[in-house]
Automatic annotation (TrEMBL):
The keyword Ribonucleoprotein does not apply. It holds the Pfam family THDPS_N_2. The keyword Oxidoreductase does not apply. Belongs to the transferase hexapeptide repeat family. The gene is dapD. Residues 20-68 form the Tetrahydrodipicolinate-N-succinyltransferase chain A domain. InterPro entries: Hexapep (IPR001451), Hexapep_transf_CS (IPR018357), THP_succinylTrfase_dom1 (IPR023180), THP_succinylTrfase_N_sf (IPR037133), Trimer_LpxA-like_sf (IPR011004). Keywords: Repeat, Transferase. CDD domains: LbH_THP_succinylT. PROSITE patterns: HEXAPEP_TRANSFERASES (PS00101). This is 2,3,4,5-tetrahydropyridine-2,6-dicarboxylate N-succinyltransferase. It comes from the Bacteria.
């Protein structure tokens, strides 16, 4: 993190000077934070050398300060919009190196889109989120506040990545590099999808969802292992009443780990990028 980032971290620390700062100084710091989030030099969560992802509470405090110190204003947006003054939609141009296809997409201030990202309409990328280079955000996708998306990721149609601003220490949803997330998948409550994983359409995961690994014969929670291929599954519900009705419970299943055939099935045409 740069010197500016360190200064911002000190300012928005729990016992930092931000609590007693003037309105003018707070607004200046908020603007700095949003700019650093947009250029990617500050992130709401980062990965340690051992692979552990940590949220940065001071970043969330700064984002929350942006809401507290904003006014509700009318905004110049097709069809009209009313939102908080410090976190409007970003204005993106050729210099940003991204493609945002017209048709209802909005990327909020404080969200980072790395060069080579493609966003199809309509989609929404919220404040504090980060989308890595060469990733595809397909139609009807939500990248929630502070969610972290790696490089070369494909978020298919109607994927939902839950956001989190409070509590400030809560880890956001993380999708690491080269992950393929199938249509209508939902990822919530800080679940981590490790690099190279593939989620079939309709997989829904939270931090407490049990994933049944048929390959390694184990149960995992809170994250999808690297290279795992996860599909929706079910298991019988327990109890006489469930037996009578033949009820079953949702149970995501790892059926294999990524191989050449999986790569071929999830490859995007270069022309789309």
């Amino acid at each position: 993190m740069t010197g500016t980032g360190v200064a911002l971290a000190d300012f928005f620390a729990e016992d930092g000077p931000g609590a007693a700062a003037s309105e003018r100084e707070t607004l200046e710091r908020v603007e700095e934070l949003l700019a650093r989030l947009e250029d990617g030099t500050v992130r709401a969560a980062t990965r340690d050398a051992d692979g552990t992802w940590h949220a940065h509470p001071w970043v969330k405090r700064g984002i929350l300060a942006a809401f507290r110190h904003s006014e509700t204003v009318e905004m110049d947006w097709p069809g009209g919009a009313v939102d908080r003054s410090l976190v409007p939609a970003r204005r993106l141009g050729l210099g940003d190196g991204v493609r945002v296809v017209p048709g209802g997409t909005s990327v909020r201030r404080g969200a980072h889109l790395a060069p080579g990202v493609v966003v199809m309409p309509p989609s929404y990328v919220n404040v504090g989120a980060s989308v890595g280079a060469g990733s595809m955000v397909d139609s009807h996708v939500l990248v929630g506040s502070c969610a972290q998306v790696g490089t070369g990721v494909h978020l298919s149609t109607a994927v939902q990545l839950g956001g989190v601003l409070e509590p400030v220490g809560a880890r956001p949803v993380v999708v690491e590099d080269d992950v393929f997330v199938g249509a209508q998948c939902g990822l919530y409550e800080g679940v981590v999808v490790r690099s190279g994983a593939v989620l079939a359409p309709g997989v829904s995961l939270t931090s407490s969802t049990t994933i049944y690994d048929l390959v390694e014969q184990r149960e995992v929670r809170g994250e999808v292992p690297a290279g795992a291929v996860v599909v929706p599954g079910s298991r019988p519900a327990r109890g006489d009443y469930a037996d009578v009705l033949g009820l079953s419970l949702y149970a995501p299943v790892i059926v294999k780990y990524r191989d050449a055939s999986t790569d071929a099935a999830t490859t995007l045409e270069d022309a789309l990028r």
